[in-house]
Amino acid sequence: MHHHLVGPLIGNMIIIGVAGVITLACFVAMIWMLLRPGETGRDHPKRDILREDR
Fold first, then answer.
1. Which pLDDT score is estimated for 31?
2. HEC letters along the chain
3. Of 41, 18, 38, 40, residue with least CA distance to 29
C-alpha cells in the first residue's frame, strides 16, 4: 500500500543522508569545542566540564 504523502525513495534517501551529515557535523563540532575551546582564561565556564575532580 502506497501512502499519498510518501515521496520517491531517492528523495527520502537524500533527506536522510543530509540530516545524518548535519547531525554528525554537530557532534564533531561539540567535541572539538569541548576539547579545544579556544579561550585562554583558566576560569572560563567551558573548563568546568573537564575538571580533574569530576
1. 92
2. CCCCCCCCHHHHHHHHHHHHHHHHHHHHHHHHHHHCCCCCCCCCHHHHCCCCCC
3. 38
Q: Determine the residue type at 3.
A: H
Neighbours of 47 (CB within 10 A): 13
Report if pTM > 0.70. Answer: no
Which residue, among 48, 52, 21, 53, has the nearest Cα to 37 in the 3D structure? 48
Blockwise average pLDDT, block size 10, the chain, 54 residues: 73 93 97 80 74 66
Grid cell of 14 as nine digits = 537524500
Q: What distance in Å separates the CA atoms of residue 52 and residue 30, rounded to the nearest whole number?
A: 20
Q: Give residue limits of the domains in the chain.
A: 9-48
